[in-house]
Specification:
Elements lengths: L13 E3 L16 E4 L6 E4 L2 E3 L8 H8 L4 E4 L5 H8 L8 E5 L3 H13 L6 E5 L6 H13 L4 E7 L2 H9 L4 E4 L9 H5 L5 H14 L3 E5 L5 H9 L4 E4 L13 E4 L2 E7 L4 H8 L12 E5 L5 H18 L13 E3 L16
Parallel strand pairs: 4-5, 4-11, 5-6, 6-7, 7-8, 8-9, 9-10, 10-11
Antiparallel strand pairs: 1-15, 2-3, 12-13, 13-14
Helix pairs in contact: 2-3, 5-7, 8-10
């Protein structure tokens, strides 16, 4: 046993220090990023925000809606091969969607089947497990890379630099960073395992960039300011779950309580998810997610505009005309309080 004494930080622990800026308007900020991926050699151009591959968020309807803003979606694992093939064959959709898989033999066969049907339409593969530290996961990433050398692979989740490096050297182009910070994740409560998300992003981004790889910050963002902090910390992509739940484009049952509408939202390791997709909770494990009713928010368009507007505004505060410049111009200030909460819960909607 050992104890690390170095300070580790989360989004709530910092604010971004403003700096002199020559920008006159948020309109001048360019949120588009261009990447050439280390292992696939593929070129990406877009707004690097990704809807999470949760079955209540990573939907085809969400993909169509966010594509209008240049954003992406990691489609959830539970679409059939036929459903994925039909969707990815749509004009333009391959540029805005990851097809998500696990690491079983059946997952590999599904990747093969999908690739054979739509070779040029399957550009992005998300290999998603809760624990990216297992040898089996590394071997699975190697196998997919060896079999599909030109596909862009996002793999995770991990929270430390050394595992980020191992996954990139094993074939991942983007490493997904985050253990436990999600709004419906209970891994930290159930296992005691995790890592403060801001520090995880900083450390993993540094490791990835040293090898020419990329990272996706996954989890912990509750407001647009958190997304700006993630980019400021070095994230190349930011993945969102709870912030995109509750919309028309989100799946999940629409329920009504006391005259108010809600949508069901749950973690992918929750009992509800395992009952839905795996016939129940296996005897050797415990759920590591929870289920909640999220207030119904209507179309995702307004939320998307709020997210992008918040990140643009953050860029103007530090003089970053392009999103690429945000991390170079970010200085974090440690704080004990983020906002004034005196009127929280009293908003009128005006």
């Amino acid at each position: 046993m050992r104890i690390e004494q170095d300070l580790k930080l989360d989004f709530k622990d910092v604010l971004i220090r403003p700096k002199r800026s020559t920008l006159k308007s948020r309109k001048q900020v360019d949120l588009m990023r261009d990447f050439t991926f280390r292992n696939s050699g593929q070129i990406y151009s877009g707004v690097p925000i990704i809807a999470a591959n949760m079955d209540t968020v990573g939907t085809m309807d969400m993909t169509r809606a966010l594509a209008k803003h240049g954003m992406m979606v990691a489609l959830h694992k539970y679409y059939t091969t036929d459903e994925l093939a039909d969707f990815l064959a749509e004009e333009g959709m391959p540029n805005h969607a990851f097809a998500s898989f696990g690491v079983t033999e059946n997952d590999f066969e599904r990747i093969e089947a999908l690739s054979k049907r739509l070779s040029n339409h399957v550009q992005y593969i998300c290999m998603d497990v809760a624990n990216g530290y297992t040898e089996a996961f590394v071997d699975a990433v190697k196998r997919v890379r060896d079999t599909f050398p030109t596909k862009t692979i996002m793999a995770g989740n991990v929270v430390t630099g050394e595992m980020t490096e191992e996954l990139i050297l094993s074939g991942a182009d983007i490493v997904k960073v985050g253990i436990g910070p999600g709004s419906v994740c209970t891994t930290r409560k159930m296992t005691g395992v995790g890592y403060p998300q801001l520090s995880a992003i900083i450390e993993c981004a540094d490791a990835a960039h040293g090898l020419g790889g990329h990272v996706c910050a996954d989890g912990g963002c509750t407001v647009p300011g958190d997304i700006a902090k993630a980019f400021g910390a070095g994230a190349d992509f930011v993945m969102l779950g709870g912030m995109l739940a509750g919309h028309d484009e989100s799946a999940g049952e629409l329920v009504e309580e006391n005259g108010r509408k809600f949508k069901r939202f749950y973690g992918m390791s929750s009992a509800e998810a395992m009952n839905t997709h795996h016939g129940g909770v296996a005897s050797y494990r415990a759920p590591e997610g929870k289920s909640v009713n999220v207030p119904y928010k209507g179309a995702v368009e307004m939320t998307a505009q709020e997210i992008l507007g918040g990140v643009r505004s953050a860029c103007t505060y530090v003089g970053a005309q392009r999103l690429k410049e945000l991390s170079k111009r970010t200085t974090f200030v440690r704080v004990s309080q983020q906002i004034n909460n005196i009127f929280t819960g009293m908003e009128t909607g005006l």
